Amino acid sequence: MADVVEITPLNLITQERDDWKVRVKVINQWSKTAYMKPESIFSYEFVLVDFQGHKMRASIYKNLMPFFAHTFKEGGFVDLSTFELKLNDDDWKLADHDLKICFLRKTTVRRCPPFKILRDVFNCVAYKDVQDWVLPKDSVFGKRYIVGQLVKLNRYKVDKDDNGEKKSIEFELSDASGEKVRCKLWGAHAEKLHDTLLSEYKKDEPVILMLHNCRYKDWEGPQVNNLLWGFKLFLNEPIQPIEEFKDALATAIREDDKYVKPVVEVDLGKDESSALTKFTDQENNKAYIIDDVRLFEKVCTFVVRGRVSSFAEKEGWFQYYCGTCDKKVQKTYDLEEMMYLYDCKVCNTTYKEANPKVRATIYVQDITGGCEMSLFDGQLSKMTHRSVQWLNNAAKNASDICDYPLELNKLLNKKFAFIVKHNLYGDENKLSGYTISDSTDNASVLNKLDAILKDKEAEYSAFDEDILVSSTPDVKKIPKFEDSGVASSCSTSTTPSSIGVKRPSPSQSTKDETPTGGTTSALGDLKIPKMEKL
After folding, report:
1. Measured between alpha carbons, how far is 461 from 470 in angstroms, rounded to an integer?
2. What is this structure's pTM?
């Protein structure tokens, strides 16, 4: 009979042996990415806890992601054995243990029955401890969280430097007794908070936030910031700390004679002046009508504005990529295994899992015509007010690349201004050669662009009766969203990367004489009726 390896508590794990076996719950998970490149994932990172409440970090590196990512997830209970131990040398430690678990190809992961943790893994940070510097400066709330009511929200900021955009938002939280704490979020977390409040904020309802894995620092006084890795933001979600705070707040309002309802100041506006400059600067980003850009033959950046009329049917809204080489894979169904497999031609390997990456193609129209434009997860997140993580999870749970989530439907028939990059790679590979690098639905920006493009559209309207808007007669608005939220299956029809031809000059004739002396369109019956102005 094989020897039974005993389960060891995490606090007793050392580098003296390499045959440890641990039983843990995964309490936190995130992806570690390249700086300013959220699509380039280096590793999956985790925080583990055992039944005694001891915590330890774990990492799965990029080349091993396809083997473990689908079995080792946040909230799961697992037994781990045959792993490597390395120093936990992260700048901000989210676990006290000096070592961290690193997965090997031979690491064994088995699900185990759920167990009860004997002591609280996390404790709420007292506001007074923050204000009075009871906690060490520049410390991490690795074992703690802070929860409170949003009472002040400053304007969301986007600053640019040589490294790209820096997004930030400052706010204040109040506890049930009226004590306040200053907070500031950076990057995608700042954007998520702003966009979520933009779509869900109700003036008469309290907004309760919980911040987990924060950094505590001195910035003109005590301030709570998010960590670069492992930070989590919860907004009015039905989890225990938020529900307990709501109960405490309701009790204070009902029973405390000294309770004063806080004055809530929420500024959900963005800096319109910077947006106006970015989208209407005719020297750096010249604005065009769509009819002028469809035949660009060089790499360039420009601005257009129009309505999103549909999604491209054939391409889907995401693609599958290899977890090892990060190249596109082919999804096939194995009749013997009764499951989908993913073939990577670069690695010459078939995997059971692949990484979905968001890349949607939308059809944008203005009065002069339309063309297809591609956008990736960051811009799709900005336009739909859904986080990148939400989009990635939706892609993972989708049955097919054409299984569109219902939330994308909100973009249809909506007007945006786009900063677009034209690249020759897309043209050469029969893909959309236009990639959206930024977008806005800011009314001031759209009105300014309307004024800039007014003369060009007037020139176009002068020849409107003789213009052929599309050279493809059978373009559909796609996908067709069903009530269930699942789009219709992919069609086998081709989708053009550009749907227009250049309008004729005034000197060019658009009609030919027929044998009977009448006139007809040069391209037959392909003429599309005049489009209504936006």
Report:
1. 16
2. 0.49
